[in-house]
Amino acid sequence: QVRLEESGGGLVQAGGSLRLSCAASGRFYNTYSMGWFRQAPGKEREFVGAIRWSDSRTIFADSLKGRFTISRDNAKVMVHLQMNTLKPEDTAIYYCAADSTLKATSPTWWGQGTQVTVSS
Questions:
Q1: Is-contact 79 68, C-beta < 8 A?
Q2: What is the pLDDT of residue 31?
Q3: String of b and e for 77-115 (b: at least 16 CB within 10 Å)?
Q4: What's the pLDDT tens digit per position in 2-25?
Q5: How far apart are CA 119 and CA 15, in angstroms?
Q6: Helix (H) or strand (E) holding 39
Q7: What is the pLDDT of residue 93?
Q8: 35, containing H or E segment
Q9: I want to staple 64 with a disulfide (CB 3.0 to 4.6 A). Which of 68, 86, 99, 106 is the partner?
Q10: 8 A C-beta contact, residue 57 and residue 70
Q11: Residue 81: which of 120, 29, 118, 35 has the closest Cα?
Q12: Strand, coil or helix: what is 48?
């Protein structure tokens, strides 16, 4: 059982930056992975990126590479999503997720989500 809690969402102007954070608690093992999905109104859930805890290997959606970066804390079970050069189309609810494997398309555990709104 893993529990996830997101923070850092808010309103930002186009071209700006925002950093989301997700803290995990419970039975989170070193072999697990954490990542981010997002869902905009009227659209399906979209994979953003994920990181494997054991070796910090990351995978990312091709369309977001270069603008978004995912990282983990050195001492805490916490992952960050650094979002730069934000665009209005980045507006969505961002969800933290975790699973036992890095390439899971339907993660086992989910956070409650945090709203990111990018104004033009």
A1: no
A2: 92
A3: bbbbbebeebeeebbbbbbbbbbeebebeebebbbebbe
A4: 999 999 999 999 999 999 999 999
A5: 9
A6: strand 33-39
A7: 98
A8: strand 33-39
A9: 68
A10: no
A11: 35
A12: strand
From the list 41, 50, 51, 34, the residue with the least C-alpha distance to 89 is 41
Asked whether 48 and 38 are in contact (CB, 8 A), the reply is: yes
68: Cβ contacts below 8 Å, ≥ 6 apart: 48, 49, 60, 81, 82, 83, 84
Beta bridge partners of 21: 7, 80
Lookup: tokens for 64 = 């977001």
State pLDDT tens for residues 34-79: 999 999 999 999 999 999 999 999 999 999 999 999 999 978 899 9
